[in-house]
Hints:
- This protein is of the alpha/beta class.
- It has helices at 8-18, 24-42, 82-88, 135-146, 161-170, 198-203, and strands at 2-4, 48-54, 59-65, 69-75, 93-94, 96-101, 108-114, 123-127, 130-131, 151-155, 158-159, 175-178, 180-181, 184-185, 191-192.
- Strands 1, 4, 5, 6, 7, 8, 10 and 12 form an eight-stranded mixed beta sheet that branches. Strands 9-11-13 form a three-stranded parallel beta sheet.
- A hairpin with a 5-residue loop joins strand 14 and strand 15 (191-192).
- The mean pLDDT is 97.
- Bound molecules: 1-O-pyrophosphono-5-O-phosphono-alpha-D-ribofuranose and uracil.
- Uracil binds next to helix 6.
- Residues 77, 130, 132, 190-191, 194, 197-199 line the site of uracil (URA).
Amino acid sequence: MLHVIDHPLIRHKLTVMRDRNTGTKDFRENLDEIGSLMVYEVTRDLPVADVEIETPICSYTAKTLESPVVVAPILRAGLGMVSGILSLIPTAKVAHIGLYRDEKTLEPHTYFEKYPPNIEEATVLIVDPMLATGGSANAAIDMVKRQGAKNIKLVCLVGAPEGVKAVEREHPDVDIYLAALDEKLNENGYIVPGLGDAGDRIFGTK
Ligand code: PRP
Ligand code: URA
């Protein structure tokens, strides 16, 4: 299912990121902040369990997160969302999924993967600012499913309808969260209006 997290603060920060005149520092900072704002909504349905504690006043049956959270950025651009998410879920473990999209064929290529133990019990948040053709997201979901992950959410900033359809088709069990659903892909596979090449804008590469 697709969830577009529409909030004035997210819209404002995304506008800063879309602007071609925004430099690396502001691009990174706004990505980080949107990551934090989005994760509050993304985790709204996480299960909680009872825990017995002593408050300064009395014994109390309180609530705590029932299962661990794993943040799984798709390298490189997904790295830009990790610290914002960890600021709200500091106990989360971090997986790394190394994928790049061939510029001509737009096919994803895997070059690295590393996972924390017990991923099968965790809620796994696959994060990447851009969902274009959906090839990278589908490959990343395949990879974490091969590790045994069952509860997977895909968290992106900007998505194209083509990418959303591709993920919904291959992985109907995975909820997709976007800050914005854009218009389309252009002939080079870039999202329109989009924000350009997220990885290059985060890391100052070309
Ligand atoms: C970008 C982006 C996604 C992918 C989206 O990464 O961060 O991972 O493209 O495109 P898709 O939906 O068509 O697969 P890229 O391959 O440019 O690598 P980078 O993050 O290292 O720049
Ligand atoms: N990857 C990006 O970084 N931007 C796009 O618009 C599409 C894929």
